[in-house]
Amino acid sequence: MNRIQFIFVLAILGSGLSYAAPAYAYLDPGTGSIILQGLIATVAGALVAGRLYWQRVKAFFRGLTSGGKDESQVTPDTHESARSDDEK
Length: 88
Fold this sequence. Notes:
Layout: H1 3-18, H2 29-65, H3 76-82
């Protein structure tokens, strides 16, 4: 297809897509209420999901900052050796 044919097809498609027929639609106040309810439900769902996974996120970043060794991997012996003489 050469350039002139491409421009012609593009003009035909563009003019056909630019024509808007009347929709005869009515948006009542209940529609806005449903949209608002959906937005609130989305925010609430994101907060609940964040709350459920917060411990995993904290453990992930704790593992990054401690060089891959989190507190669950620390043995009691290392805690004993870390104490000062006054605490023993």
